[in-house]
User: Which sequence fits this backbone?
């Protein structure tokens, strides 16, 4: 007696899969566009990144029919909780970049000393930033920046190798941006968001 054939490979099934993939890609790219629009004001850069991070899992899982509405809801929450922290991060980042450029143009051996201090500091801050996004992704509504920062530090300590891999990946991304500035339009928020999502996965599943 012949067994019933599976319909997993039928054109209708393949069409549903293709539509699901395109819908996911569209939602993820929409988060990037929304981040760019809301990052015009400096104090909204970090809250915007947090909003992308919190909306990303639902965009990937297609668990929310209105991803833009979800992003705005997370953004309002993040602005209330993290605007001052975000401003401090932006100011410190600008100072760090200026310091790196200054010491990179200095003469030896002072350049080696300056870069030898600032480069590890920059790497640690990148790891903490990814950890901060990873923790903020699932933080409760009442959580503030201090608690998220402490948990981010603990996460980086627990997972130093993935954090180091995230630093290298983000550094590679910045090198690509230097050659192809137009990539800013498609990955400014998404690249750190996916790295932080990957960093957080074992913690979420444990």
Assistant:
């Amino acid at each position: 007696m012949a067994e019933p054939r599976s319909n997993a490979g039928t054109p209708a099934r393949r069409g549903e899969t293709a539509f699901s993939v395109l819908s996911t890609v569209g939602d993820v790219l929409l988060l990037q566009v929304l981040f760019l629009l809301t990052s015009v004001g400096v104090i909204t850069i970090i809250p915007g990144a947090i909003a992308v991070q919190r909306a990303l899992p639902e965009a990937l899982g297609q668990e929310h029919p209105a991803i833009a509405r979800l992003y705005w809801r997370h953004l309002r929450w993040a602005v209330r909780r993290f605007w001052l922290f975000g401003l401090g991060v932006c100011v410190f980042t600008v100072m760090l970049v200026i310091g790196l450029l200054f010491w990179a143009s200095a003469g030896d051996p002072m350049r080696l000393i300056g870069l030898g201090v600032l480069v590890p500091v920059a790497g640690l801050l990148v790891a903490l930033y990814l950890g901060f996004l990873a923790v903020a992704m699932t933080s409760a509504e009442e959580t503030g920046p201090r608690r998220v920062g402490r948990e981010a530090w603990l996460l980086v300590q627990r997972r130093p190798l993935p954090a180091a891999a995230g630093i290298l990946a983000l550094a590679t991304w910045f090198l690509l941006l230097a050659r192809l500035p137009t990539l800013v339009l498609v990955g400014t928020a998404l690249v750190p968001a996916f790295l932080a999502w990957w960093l957080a996965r074992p913690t979420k599943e444990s």
User: Anything to note?
Assistant: The first helix runs from residue 11 to 38. The chain has a mean pLDDT of 87. The CA atoms of residues 127 and 167 lie 6 Å apart.
